[in-house]
Amino acid sequence: AGHESTRRGALIVVEGLDRAGKSSQCEKLRDYLSEQGHTVKYIRFPDRTTPIGKLIDSYLRGSTDQEDHSIHLLFSANRWEVAKSIQEDIANGSTIIVDRYSYSGAVYSAAKANPTLSLEWAWQPEIGLPRPDICLFLNISAEEAAKRGGFGAERYENEAMQSRVRDLFRTLFERQEDVSIIDAGKSLEDVSKEIQIVVSECLGRLDAIGPLRTLG
Length: 216
Ligand code: ADP
Ligand code: 2DT
Ligand code: MG
Prior knowledge:
Bound molecules: adenosine-5'-diphosphate, 3'-deoxythymidine-5'-monophosphate, magnesium ion
CATH architecture: 3-Layer(aba) Sandwich
Low-confidence stretches: none
CATH superfamily: P-loop containing nucleotide triphosphate hydrolases
Order of helices and strands: EHEHHEHHEHHEH
CATH class: Alpha Beta
Strand order of the largest sheet: 2-3-1-4-5
Mean pLDDT: 96
Oligomer: single chain
Strand content: 5-15%
Helix content: 40-55%
């Protein structure tokens, strides 16, 4: 007794446009999985608390400007700085729910239409990061999102940017495996139920998936 190896946790990513309901659903999923007896952590990107995160925060608030490629690499670095701790937590049995990840990273930067910042270029620094076991894309129309409140004051919170981001998410997710597209226009409860089903199915497949993989 006492020699069984710990069952690893899952890496669950929640993605989507502004006001798709990511943060609300991450919290609901955390509570649901905790009640089921899982050890759960909820993290978000950008993590604005680290030194790199503070630069990102200042950029998003519009207090500082940054060159497009440069800020892109800082967003990626903000994931790399916790990559090892994610791997360790998962190996030790924690399930991690992540509010935005590499997909937002690639898509928001590529949406700037900078001629030397393609979606392909933007994806490269993500290669080798922990790969989600499942990515839930909360899909919402511009009209439904607008009903949930106006745009905030941060960079990227405008109609032109959001519509390019929506198109690029679609392009990116056509090429990705392990993505589940969720209709996020339904009620909080209905969206939450659908997420619970997809996540439970993913947890059931963890043994078959094997160790945590890396993004390619
Ligand atoms: P995100 O993190 O994707 O920007 P939030 O979870 O912060 O989205 O939700 C944005 C706003 O929309 C909040 O006011 C939230 O209460 C509301 N909201 C979230 N999900 C729903 C839903 N399914 N139906 C109606 N309103 C929602
Ligand atoms: P929120 O903190 O409200 O989620 O907004 N973004 C995010 C990027 O441009 N690159 C990234 O790698 C990530 C994770 C999306 C954060 C804003 O930052 C954008 C919206
Ligand atoms: Mg949020």
